[in-house]
Design goal:
Organism: Thelohanellus kitauei (Myxosporean)
GO molecular function, one term: histone H4K20 methyltransferase activity
Helix content: 25-40%
Structural class: alpha+beta
Largest sheet: 4 strands, mixed
CATH topology of one domain: Beta-clip-like
Distance between the termini: 63 Å
Keywords: Methyltransferase, Transferase
CATH class of one domain: Mainly Beta
InterPro entries: KMT5A, SET_dom, SET_dom_sf
Protein name: N-lysine methyltransferase SETD8-A
């Protein structure tokens, strides 16, 4: 910006040359003047966006670490048993809840899965990136384990995040979700073995 100001002065007629140099020198050497005296100070919109994003991230982490599940409740879902329903609206991209359970390694997950097949129980999701699984079979007072499957009418998408070195599965709204709506996500398992054991995965 200083160079632009100098060029502007240089375009003045040559008979004012001495005056030009004096003005330029005064501008550069006057210790009382700063760029803020000549140009408006404004806050960067990029910094504001980053600050807002950081605050939102902190809020999500706080809710996860403290088990805060707002705007949700367990209800009976026709033909499915219990499910998770909204008691408030969620916007697309909003954090909704965590799939909370025991973090176990692959070996333990295979062993538990076999035992769950005997009585058709179990609520276990694998985290392939970390070679771990989260087993939410036992009721620990959290709602994530009650999320039902829907291949065509899901309104949640899952995401793997890491907090303090521990991988976690969380869910975000994939669309605007009104109040009093059941939350569902696509389990994504299309294997022949799983479809044989759990035919409802087709729908």
């Amino acid at each position: 910006m200083i160079e632009s100001r100098t060029r502007c002065l240089t375009l003045s007629p040559s008979r004012r040359h001495n005056r030009k140099i004096t003005v330029q020198t005064s501008f550069m050497r006057d210790k009382q003047n700063t760029l803020f005296d000549y140009y408006q100070v404004r806050r960067s919109s990029r910094l504001e966006a980053k600050s807002s994003k950081d605050d939102n991230k902190k809020d999500i982490y706080n809710r996860i670490l403290n088990g805060i599940e707002e705007g949700l409740e367990a209800r009976e879902s026709p033909g499915k048993g219990r499910g998770v329903f909204t008691t408030k609206e969620f916007k697309t991209g909003d954090f909704v809840l965590e799939y909370y359970g025991d973090l176990i390694d692959r070996k333990a997950a295979i062993k538990r899965e076999k035992s769950y097949e005997l009585d058709n129980s179990g609520s276990l999701i694998g985290i392939n990136i970390f070679s771990y699984s989260i087993d939410a079979t036992l009721d620990k007072g959290r709602l994530g384990r009650l999320l039902n499957h829907s291949r065509t009418e899901f309104n949640l998408v899952s995401k793997i995040i890491e907090i303090r070195g521990i991988p976690r599965i969380v869910f975000y709204a994939s669309k605007d979700i009104p109040k009093d709506v059941e939350l569902c996500y696509d389990y994504g398992d299309r294997s022949k073995r799983s479809l044989k054991l759990y035919p409802w995965l087709r729908y």
